[in-house]
Amino acid sequence: MSPISDLDLNKCQGVGRSVGKSLPKPDAVAKVRGEAMYVADMTRPEMLIGKVLRSDRAHARIKAINIGKAMHIPGVVAVLTASDIPGKNRIGDSNLKDRPVLASERVRFYGEALALVAAVDMKAAEKGLSAIEVEYEDLPVLTSPGASLEPGAPALHPEGNICSRRLVVRGDCAGALSRADLVVANTYTTQWVDHAYLETNAALAEWVDGRLVVWVTTKSVHEDQGEITRVLGLPAEKVRVIAATIGGSFGGKSDQDLVCMASLLSYHTGRPVKIVYTREEDLQVTTKRHPYSIRYTHGVTADGRLLAVKMELTADAGAYTSYSPSVVTRAVIHGTGPYRVPNVYLEGKSVFTNNPVTGAMRGYGTPQVTFACESQMDILAGKLGIDPFELRARNILCPGDAISCGQILGPGAAKEALDLCRELQVNDRAGLNDKDCNAYGDGRRRKAWGIGTFFYGNGRTAQHNPGVAEISLGMDGVFRLCVGSPDIGQGSDTAMAQIAAESLGVDTSLIQVISADTGLTRDSGTTSGTRLTYIVGKGVEMAACKLREILMESAARAMGVEKDALVLYGDKILLRKGKRQKQDNESGRPDSACIRLKDLAVWAEQTGIYLLADGRFDPPTTPLDPDTGCGIPYGAYTFGTQCARVTVDTLTGKLNVDKIIAVYDVGTPVNPRLLEAQIEGGCAGGVGYGVMEEILLRDGKVVNNNFDAFLIPTSKDMPRVNSYIVPNREETGSFGAKGIGEPALVPTAAAIANAVAAATGVRIMDLPITPERFLAGLQERGCCGKTLPAPGAEKVMPGRDDNDKS
Amino acid sequence: MTKANLNQDCRYYAPATVDSAMELISMEGARILAGGTDLLLELKRGQIHSGVIVDISRIPELRAIRSTGGGSGSSTVIGSAVTFSQLAVSSLVKSRAAVLSQAALAIGSPQIRNRGTVGGNIANGSPAADIVPALVALESRLRLVSPGGQRMADLEEILKAPAGKTALKPGELICEIIYNTPPEGVRSAFVKLGRRESLAISRISMAAVVETDRQGVVTRAVLALGAVAPHPFRVKSAEDVLVGKKIQPQGVESLLEPVVQAISVEVARTLGDRPSAAYKCRAVKGVAWDALMACLRK
């Protein structure tokens, strides 16, 4: 099997003339040259600069906001507070809408917005901000779910401090645990992290011909439009939201407060207003990945079959609901890992605190769970004396197996991916015998491989989330494909064009993609949940296939021939060989054996036929049973295994990730180069999550609020990533394709944690695995450098496996 | 002399000679701009509201690396506005004082190395300055110019100040950094431990310069640590352990063990009960080991 980069594509299933080709992203060159226009680059005549006054405390009652002085600062055009909001001062990703655009009575997190200033330039805007006076009455700051759940803790919302709960129960978990030959229970914690996209959040709102037009860096223009219209009290047709070039998302850029604030300033001033967050502001106020505390209890038979998994998970929701309920639901459903487990009790809750709001981030609640679950698998393997690959192979989900919530799987290739990864890793011995290994005493630098296996449901969890597309043929002979979901930089526009071209049977160069503009595209859902290729792609395919039928019928009419006698080739529709001249032409029609697409479009225009079609695909899911959590949450699952090779310096605690092998079942690869790029980028996010990234909070304030202190891996920290796919075909997906966006990141941290344990015997149960944490773990085990155990002879840190029973 | 408007309250000057720089520096509220990697952040954050910014990066004599004297008595003279990039590629520095070019390369990223200067790294007074331990290990001296004249000072003397400060006098400009060019055959190395491979502040750094005679006996050793005290400093106790020892291919490890131990003891003393002490006392052993091995390994 060769890596994705040298795939012989003709051998891949489902590969055709467009799908399966490594076409370049058309936006790549402009981005590299710095020519792409981001919101920050946009300017308009008479444009004002907007700035946001933010609370400098995490929890307080607002007694007064005095804007009188600010109004008189030269250059300040408007100063707005909550009372200036014409519609509802409520936004939110769920139906709950529990978050104000501008706080008026109480602030619940550090940096919550209180007032807005629009001014002729940045300096005046900043002076205006500093002239606003806020009187607070401090309230106790709840800095953790534990603090929020203590009796007597102040309620952050009317319903109390529990944001959401989700339970998935199947079989008899307690009974199975009592029958198990081995039970392993441990508690894991994960940290706060930020998406760290290169472009900070930004929006520009302006009035154009009586309509508010908002340019924004976003995951969903249609959700933004909904929030703006509610906040401004405007009808939908008065608000048009367009996604500008987007400089990265990774799940972020889904908070709707910014678009509402820019819109509000433009609404009141009548002038274009641009707000661009500073990095410090962005890191403080935008949503983060949930930190979890996870208690896992696994029960197995002596021969390594999983009998039961119990998981109790608590997530910090931060100050408002955002995506917390669905993040936790996804985490719980994926709580068993990609394994056959007959008895499950998986419980998750999210809890309000006065910390930053947590929301969607690449992996949507599952990288945390995968780190903990895969650590458990390696601990079980060690205690049972079974090879970690073998233990996974004995339990991995196969076609026909039920996942945690009872859904029966179709033909997935989880086992094949695991087996290939095992084969590749076993054959990769390079570097394991480096002389470096013995540079200091006996084995100062230790090297080992670790495994992370996972699965990931494509699309939103147990919800309707149709992918919608429209495609038409213009009189220039070019197809216009309209998709509502933005290309956030990952290349979805390119993938959608490839799917449309393949379905139509034309070259991709004939497809023009228009995405994420509420004035031109219908809502095809957010760019999230690894749903674009699988769900929106299928909608595109359906639209394009429908249009192809219309084209052939129209051409048949135009040419006066039978539809079956025609074939689409290049930019023409022509008569098949042997059919030519056999049929009579109606008078006035082109007398030839072919018709060019653009001539067909002209003919259709004159004849009154619309060369236009739409498609809609909603994956076959069901809602989850409210009591047991059982149901069909996703239409398809991506499977994969990553192996990470690490070198740990047992003196300094320095951890290098030397190499990653990533093997995936993504069904048909639509664009192998983009697929590989997603995997490599995902691994970078996973390496950072595993060893380095951590947002540090002090009373709800982000302490490391710029990239000098919030560290993410540089190119020098990234190892080589060898990416592979196993052949498979997802029957419900477009040309057999499934998604890769989030799955690319999910198992990396888990693989690193397992590699560290395999190399040194030190099991770190709290992310990130920093040098300090590693050395503390090493010292707790009582071995300092020279008396390390042999690789593989793992021992769990004392005090953490208190429920062990062997 | 060029002049530009920075904003309404700050005036920017770029003098062409040290003399005209001195005139400007003696003005009230004057700040010296070399590479700007620290000063520009202060400006951006609004921590500097008014005054005179004196850009010394266009003074030719401060941008040169040169050698003076000859034979065993030669010195290397580095202008204070020499950038880390310049330092990293200088063959004079690379061939005789690898410790310094390695330290220059360990700083920030290419963009930062293209801007940041040797003099700025010293004057900023950061405990984690990467160039400083290397210069301490080379026993550098500074030529300082002030309106009243000029003086020579040992770098270590200038570092006798609280963290973030130096013992430079008001109005003094570092013009040159001078060290005796180590004779051929002297080995030196710089090792840095950061939280990532580049764009990382040193958590621990060490610079080592070791001289051995023909029999392999260590005749001279200067060992300097960074980021474990208010300023980089020499660990004389560890130097004493090393000097006089005979290096043999087989016994290097047992020979280095007490040196590394002495360094760790010194770090425990400087860090006291700081939260990072437990980690750094152990981790410094790895850093020291790597630096010393680079100097002693055949």
Annotation keywords:
heterodimer, A: 806 residues, alpha+beta, seven-stranded mixed beta sheet, five-stranded mixed beta sheet, 18 helices, 28 strands, 26% helix, disordered C terminus, B: 298 residues, five-stranded antiparallel beta sheet, four-stranded mixed beta sheet, 13 strands, globular, disordered N terminus
SS element count, helices of chain A: 18
- The class by helix and strand makeup of chain B works out as alpha+beta
Largest sheet of chain A: 7 strands, mixed
Order of helices and strands of chain B: EEHEHEEEHHHHHHEEHEEEEEHHH
Global shape of chain A: globular
Binned strand content of chain B = 25-35%
Query: Strands across the major sheet of chain A, in which order?
Result: 3-5-1-12-9-10-11
Give unreliable regions of chain B as ranges: 1-5
Q: Give the tally of β-strands of chain A.
A: 28
Low-confidence residue ranges of chain A? 10-14, 435-441, 582-589, 784-806
- What is the spatial order of strands in the main beta sheet of chain B? 5-6-9-7-8
Largest interface: A-B, 23 and 22 residues
Secondary structure tally: strands of chain B: 13
Oligomerization state: heterodimer
List the helices and strands and how they pair.
The complex is a heterodimer of chains A (806) and B (298).
Chain A: H1 28-33, E1 48-54, E2 60-66, H2 68-71, E3 76-80, E4 106-107, E5 113-119, H3 122-130, E6 133-138, H4 145-149, E7 162-170, H5 173-179, E8 182-189, E9 202-208, E10 211-216, H6 221-232, E11 239-243, H7 257-269, E12 273-276, H8 279-285, E13 292-300, E14 306-318, H9 324-333, E15 343-352, H10 366-384, H11 388-395, H12 414-426, E16 445-457, E17 467-473, E18 479-483, H13 492-504, E19 511-515, H14 532-559, E20 566-569, E21 572-575, E22 594-596, H15 597-607, E23 612-617, E24 637-649, E25 655-665, H16 672-691, E26 697-698, E27 701-702, E28 720-725, H17 748-760, H18 771-780
Helix pairs in contact in A: 6-7, 10-11, 10-17, 13-14, 16-17
Chain B: E1 2-7, E2 10-14, H1 18-25, E3 30-33, H2 39-44, E4 51-55, E5 65-68, E6 75-79, H3 84-89, H4 91-96, H5 98-105, H6 110-115, H7 118-123, H8 131-137, E7 141-146, E8 149-154, H9 155-158, E9 173-180, E10 187-193, E11 204-212, E12 218-226, E13 233-234, H10 236-242, H11 252-271, H12 277-296
Parallel strand pairs in B: 2-4, 3-4
Antiparallel strand pairs in B: 1-2, 5-6, 6-9, 7-8, 7-9, 10-11, 11-12, 12-13
